[in-house]
Specification:
By secondary structure, this protein is an alpha/beta fold. Strand 11 and strand 12 form a beta hairpin. 33% of the residues are buried.
């Protein structure tokens, strides 16, 4: 099954770094967050990726073009008057990566519509290129296959980030720490769709999270799989630093192997 990753946006909320590279190429522990996301899927045996690129898409292409070289020990031998390269040791994932320029200003739904020919007539997984988690991909896929609907989204209770006041008729009745019951469920990506979902997307101006999802909901074709572990997006520099701190400390929950 193919894995589609949305990686074409401008990343304006983390402009300190996205001014120079696409947000999915911002590094956590010297590797792009895009690489971290792909490693999650690869851990479960899903290695066929389609990257929906856009903003500064050449940077993504160039990174993968050099990936084999950067992960190998090599000797460059110029002694005989010519350029010879010998690869001694290499470690590279068993990935097939298709990078598609889906347009600079194409909306999220439109990007998926543009890669229709690469997906083919088969189910596919889809996620955003800016968030990681200890997602159980096999459980997600099994749930999707069991309910028989067109779409499944992973949802997560992000909770509150402060202490919680319980107020009744204006009077403070209690103060307590946050719990998993505080906050609403949000869509965290890590989605699965049947191929007919592409029929719900009109074109470049279609926002994935609006018309297509609403139409699925109205048709009774959208299910939610609740994730109870770790999840974190990288919308801001502060969130990037949080992920980097976890990685450097060897405590990154999304590192599965």
């Amino acid at each position: 099954m193919k894995v589609v990753i949305l990686a074409g946006g401008f990343g304006t909320r983390i402009s300190e770094e996205s001014a120079f590279k696409p947000k999915p190429m911002i590094e956590i522990g010297e590797m792009p967050i895009l690489w971290h996301i792909m490693k999650i899927y690869s851990h479960y045996g899903y290695n066929d990726f389609i990257i929906c690129a856009g903003y500064k898409q050449h940077i993504i292409k160039e990174w993968f073009a050099d990936y084999f070289l950067h992960t190998s020990d090599v000797t460059f031998d110029f002694s005989a008057g010519h350029n010879a390269m010998v690869v001694h040791h290499h470690h590279v994932e068993p990935w097939k990566v298709t990078i598609v320029d889906t347009g600079l200003r194409t909306q999220t739904g439109g990007r998926i519509k543009r890669i229709k020919d690469y997906i083919g007539n088969e189910p596919f997984m889809l996620t955003y290129g800016d968030a990681v988690g200890d997602i159980h991909i096999d459980e997600l896929l099994k749930y999707h296959q069991t309910h028989g609907k067109i779409g499944t989204v992973s949802v997560y209770n992000f909770g509150q980030n402060k202490g919680v006041l319980e107020v009744e008729n204006g009077e403070v009745k209690a103060f307590r720490e946050k719990s998993d019951l505080d906050g609403d469920l949000i869509n965290i990506g890590f989605m699965v769709f049947q191929p007919e979902f592409l029929n719900y997307i009109d074109g470049d101006a279609t926002v994935l999270e609006k018309e297509p999802m609403t139409r699925l909901l109205v048709d009774g074709q959208l299910m939610a799989h609740t994730h109870h572990g770790f999840w974190q997006c990288m919308d801001t520099l502060r969130e990037k630093e949080k992920l980097e701190t976890l990685w450097n400390a060897g405590k990154a929950p999304w590192k599965l192997d």
